[in-house]
Amino acid sequence: MANSADIVIVGGGIAGLSLAVELKLRKAGHVVILERNYIGSGASARNVGRIRAMQLTEALTRYAKLCQQKYDQMADALGYNVLFWRAGYLWLLYDSDEIDRMRPIVDMHHRLGVRSELLKPEDVHRLVPQLREGEPVTGGVAHNRDGIVHHDAVVWAYYETARRLGVEIRQHTEVIGFDIQNEKVYGVQAREDLISTQCVVNAAGAWSSRIALMVGIKIPNSPIRREVLVTAPVKPFLSHAITFYRPTEGWFNQTLRGEVVAGVVNPQESSGVNSASSFNFLIRTASMIVKKMPALANLTVIRQWAGMYDVTPDHQPLIGESHQVRGFHQANGWSGRGMLLSPFSMQLLAEQITTGIAPGAMPEEFDPNRFAGIESLEEAQDYYQRYAKK
């Protein structure tokens, strides 16, 4: 193993792996990934892989379309089938104010070429008949061409491609410090040795705020547990991946193998790294999902898991070089959209690192320095309010 590198990436999830591949494709030199556990052990292997263009703001919708295009090309680019398919996507709406919120959002989708539809209750039931017996809806928003991907297939494809391109990947290697001189990075201290480098990328997911503090940067990211359950496979019957936000955020969809995956958020979930799944989650999710679709009541849950969202106060990621420490780049704060945003975002970050020029496609909302100097930050609890214009 080398004790020097052109670029060191802290974190071996989808962000770190895709960035390493993009850097090597741009002849970036010797790239090292340091992963404290095993590749993909964080949120990258603990999610449901929704790659949706339907977003609540114009900036996110434009960007999500570009991210979907990256997935359309991924199998050919990497040489692996990442099991990306265009499924239907359906937001269930349960209050009249949700309908009012969605009217201008659907209009925005149409301006950008995302063919979502605002549905009446009878339209929702025609689309997904199994919802007829459930809790009454006031409507829905559907998009018949949104995407789902198998997260493990994506991680494996990037891992194998990174290895083939010569990326040095060190698993079970914890970062414990940095060599910082005159507000510039000169090395990364792992438990085994010091790696000399003048370019570091913090792609550590739930541990990103800890890594940033090691170089003297405070970022407001919080690791928040999210849990998922999986049922035994049954004959395919769900055409759309379903999400709802009332009375609290939840989701369910059927996989290519016929399993139903589902989860309902605990609004009182405290921050902290916690990958233990709970019986309370099982009861909460089963109870609420069955209210939404009683036809799911007889399915058998065969496993469940938990992972951490790395959440910022505005639920937008931090991507780019820090103003406080030269050579230290952020690639974190994905807030539940890492699988969607990372591959295309890391393409842009690789361009920035190798050319020194910030790509125009990177949204200004992703500025990694936007929270610098802000003492007090409050996160909106209502899902829609998070994305309301300030």
Description:
With 390 residues, the chain is an alpha/beta fold. The protein folds into 2 domains: 7-45 and 153-221 and 313-372, FAD/NAD(P)-binding domain (3-Layer(bba) Sandwich), CATH 3.50.50.60; 86-147 and 223-307, D-Amino Acid Oxidase, subunit A, domain 2 (D-Amino Acid Oxidase, Chain A, domain 2), CATH 3.30.9.10. Helix content is 28%, strand content 26%. It has helices at 14-25, 58-78, 96-111, 121-127, 151-164, 208-214, 279-292, 338-355; strands spanning 7-10, 31-34, 50-51, 84-93, 117-119, 139-149, 168-170, 175-181, 184-190, 194-196, 200-202, 222-231, 240-244, 250-254, 260-264, 301-311, 318-321, 328-332. Strands 3, 4, 5, 6, 12, 13, 14, 15 and 16 form a 9-stranded mixed sheet that branches. A hairpin with a 6-residue loop joins strand 17 and strand 18 (328-332). Helix 1 (14-25) packs parallel to helix 5 (151-164) and helix 1 (14-25) runs parallel beside helix 8 (338-355). The radius of gyration is 21 Å and the shape is globular.
